[in-house]
# Entry
Amino acid sequence: MVGLVFAVGCATLLWLLSLRIRDVSIVDIFWGPGVAGVVDIAALLGHAGGERASAALFLVNLWAVRLAAHIWARHRGEDHRYAAMRQKFGARWWWWSLVQVFLLQAILIWFIPAPLVAAMLSSRTALTSLGYLGVGLAVAGLLFEAVADVQLASFRAVAPNRGKVMDQGLWGWSRHPNYFGEAVMWWGYFLIGFSAAHQWWLVLSPILVTFLLLQVSGVSLMEEAMNERRPGYAAYKRRVSAFVPMPPRTRG
# Structure
């Protein structure tokens, strides 16, 4: 409950700030630190210790700092998704954004790290073989996501590439390698938490993350936008897997 109060309280403060600066996109910057904050609170209240808690805390806070820094560096005013919602709701947006964006994200920030919270509150401190597998998956997913983001940022930094489709590196094997890495990381976190608590309901966390990445705020939303903004994206879609990395199909 302390984690829920933290998430809702921070979301409300960010909402008030967004009203002042007319930019709802700041909620995205808070996503990583918010999730890590819930886990950190559980670790403090549960007096977590041992290799399992140490590994989980290190990974989730490293992920949070990297993701927040990455989104902050890309921030150039309100994202087009939120701008469209602002236009759609009109005069109602000032209060509807609290429910539709900030409080909804607060609930997700509280629920999604449930496997890591379970690991913090468990009396078991040593990593089992399943826990080591989870750490390995989480590290692999985190690295995959980070490398994909760096590759895309480097591609966009070259002026002649503006308006072109990124199809190099990891992006030549998956159209959304950053989202794939994020999903793999959360399945790793689930294994860490399950190895400590042995509660199957914790699997709802990575299932929800994967669903959101595929159907809500990730792949489907980006695909729709890219189809409109990138002329060569249709050909890219025919060659490259949408999510799971695979060798690209031959051209033509």
